[in-house]
Amino acid sequence: MSSTIIPALLSGGAGTRLWPVSREAHPKPFMQLADGQSLLQKTFIRAARLAGVENVLTITNREYYFKTRDDYEALDSDVRVEKSFLLEPMGRNTGPAVALGALTIGQKWGKDAVMLVLSADHLIEDDAAFGEAVAMAEGLARGAKLVTFGIKPTAPETAYGYIEQGEAIGSTGGYRAARFEEKPSLEVAQRYLVSGRHLWNSGIFCFTVGTILDQLKEHAPRIYEGALTCWERTKARQGADAGVMEIDAETFSSLPDLSIDYAVMEKSGAVAVVPARFGWSDVGSWSAVSDLVRPDEAGNRVVGEAVLVDSENTFVRSESRVIAAVGTRNLIVVDTPDALLVADRDRTQDVKKVVEQLKLRKHETYKVHRTVTRPWGTYTVLEEGDRFKIKRIVVKPGASLSLQMHHHRSEHWVVVSGIAKVVRDDQEYFVNVNESTFIPPGRKHRVENPGMLELVMIEVQSGDYLGEDDIVRFQDNYGRT
Questions:
Q1: Has residue 360 been placed in a domain?
Q2: Do 164 and 226 belong together in one domain?
Q3: Using CA atoms, how far apart are residues 178 and 432, in angstroms rounded to an integer?
Q4: For position 437, which CATH number holds?
């Protein structure tokens, strides 16, 4: 029997209730907390430090791979563990993700390997208690159980699903999961809190590869059969032992869009629940985020720089400028360079309605920040207007943009620091600090950073259309052609 335990981190989702920090192209797992670490980084550290873990599998969208890799590389000096990636071409919910994750783990470590499914955007305060709960769950999983972690409720929470705790399973510390409950009304949630038999559904799972595949085959045959076909196509295209696997898009798109809860956990008779007290939060709203910050005597909480006068129970998060609040009560204020949120603390669940409105208006702030991460570095939009846009471009050492062409705009590059190696049609030349170059429309071009330090440029675009989709790529080091 395999003694291997492989954490599988599910990382994605738009996190619309945490706009304007969480956006479609920069979702909730990448959101940094007050200590400077992202939720993804915290989850990775927690998983990597579990006893016996030698490899962490991350299941995420292909568009998030390079940012995920950057977050992990920032931790290499503290956490050294093998990393593998399973990249989705699109979101299909957690059912297909778990199925393909199980097939990936089974291919390398066998059907007896234990798969620990973690959401990359949850926060856990007590890592030691978490490790103890995982050890308990691992024992149950090796007994052919599908294990979920239930959190002892501390309030009548209506935003969480609940699990009704059944009879004890011997002396394992686990219990039979008698029933899964959807998000309840406040009255029902208050009854659940008093009952002592109901637990919050944390969305953390533990099972062997063989058990979850057998249960998928029984309760969600469409996901099971479709995942097998998708996995065979994925293997054939890339090889089974690659550290980064890109899921076959055609077969993956045909899989049912179902959560693992609905597809299997709510239907199976083999589900066990481990009651846990390890300080869990899904950080699902700005109210939850604010609770992570120590309050002052008036209940105010601040991240960044702020001046509060005669204010109570106000949360302020500022990334780049001073926020002043006078006479405010029960407010949430979240400021980013291109968007500001002001909300009643009791209405933070409705922030997602703002994102819905932005999507209807096709306003790009629902999707991207002013600073956008790319595989080669970042760009920041400094200013834009009719027929012009000004960007600050930062290229990592040794990285390069794609060989590309624009139909509708010209680009003027000024090097601020570092050195740029430029290709323009059949020319190749270097541009040093305080020097510039010009790229007319219709010219093939690329910029590369050949140095050991970051390359920083100011780019001035001019033309009748300045959208990011006016790019024709001819060659790319990051597979984006």
A1: no
A2: yes
A3: 68
A4: 2.60.120.10
Total domain count, the chain? 3
Q: Average pLDDT, stretch 392-411?
A: 97
Q: 371-400 pLDDT, tens per residue?
A: 999 999 999 999 999 999 999 999 999 999
Contact (CB, 8 A) for 222 and 256: yes
Residues 248 and 205 in one domain: yes
Rounded to 10 deg, the angle between the 209-219 and 221-238 helix axes is: 130
105 shares its domain with 157: yes
Bridge partners of 429, per DSSP, are 422
Residues 190 and 210 in one domain: yes
Sign for the pseudo-dihedral over CA of 232, 9, 90, 239: negative
Range of the domain at 389: 371-475
Q: Within this chain, do residues 323 and 266 fall inside the same structural domain, yes or no?
A: no
Rounded CA separation 356/20 (Å): 13
If you compute the radius of gyration of the chain from its CA atoms, what whole number of angstroms results? 25
Average pLDDT value over all residues in the chain: 94
CB 315 within 8 A of CB 333: yes
Same domain, 315 and 444: no
Same domain for 44 and 120, yes or no, is yes
Task: Give the total residue count for the chain.
Answer: 481
* Residue 1 confidence (pLDDT) above 50: no
Q: Write a three-state SS string for 254-306.
A: CCCCCCHHHHHHCCCCCEEEEEECCCEECCCCHHHHHCCCCCCCCCCEEECCE
